[in-house]
């Protein structure tokens, strides 16, 4: 059995993609581990509040795949489209090193392919 992580493609009001820099120096989509009794959308909405202190509406699923986080350690990733609700004044949590806002056409090189593909699906790239 693999851990399950629910991730969201979210854009700022200016249309920039919201990414988080993790401890492995990789950019990732906001989101995290699903908890017992949660649906995937409930998990993602909770995680985005915890990680960014912003509220979102979770939309349709985009993709799912098995991701090798580090050699020999895999996580099942499911990605969803998200829509910002209310204001956007993100606050970084202890879980990440930095919040990044990126033009969809200029995503960082250290963004794993699966996240890049989900962004492409969400934005029609």
Automatic annotation (TrEMBL):
UniProt-listed Gene3D superfamilies: Nucleoside Triphosphate Pyrophosphohydrolase
Catalytic activity: 8-oxo-GTP + H2O = 8-oxo-GMP + diphosphate + H(+); 8-oxo-dGTP + H2O = 8-oxo-dGMP + diphosphate + H(+)
Pfam families xrefs: NUDIX (PF00293)
InterPro entries: MutT-like (IPR047127), Nudix_hydrolase (IPR020476), NUDIX_hydrolase-like_dom_sf (IPR015797), NUDIX_hydrolase_CS (IPR020084), NUDIX_hydrolase_dom (IPR000086)
Family annotation (PROSITE patterns): NUDIX, NUDIX_BOX
Regions annotated as coiled coil: none
Keywords: DNA damage, DNA repair, DNA replication, Hydrolase, Magnesium, Metal-binding, Mutator protein
Cofactor(s) the record lists: Mg(2+)
Listed EC numbers: 3.6.1.55
Enzyme type, top EC level: hydrolase
Superkingdom to which the source organism belongs: Bacteria
Domain Nudix hydrolase: 1-125
Family that this chain belongs to: Belongs to the Nudix hydrolase family.
Protein name according to UniProt: 8-oxo-dGTP diphosphatase
Native source species: Pseudomonas cucumis
């Amino acid at each position: 059995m693999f851990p399950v992580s629910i991730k969201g493609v979210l854009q700022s009001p200016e249309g920039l993609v919201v990414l988080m820099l993790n401890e492995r120096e990789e950019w990732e989509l906001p989101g995290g581990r699903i908890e017992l009794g949660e649906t995937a959308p409930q998990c993602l909405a909770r995680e985005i509040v915890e990680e960014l202190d912003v509220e979102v509406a979770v939309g349709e699923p985009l993709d799912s795949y098995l991701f090798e986080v580090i050699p020999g350690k895999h996580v099942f990733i499911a990605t969803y489209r998200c829509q910002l609700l209310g204001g956007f004044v993100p606050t970084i949590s202890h879980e990440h090193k930095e919040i990044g806002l990126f033009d969809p056409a200029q995503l960082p090189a250290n963004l794993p392919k699966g996240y890049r593909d989900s962004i492409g699906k969400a934005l029609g790239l």
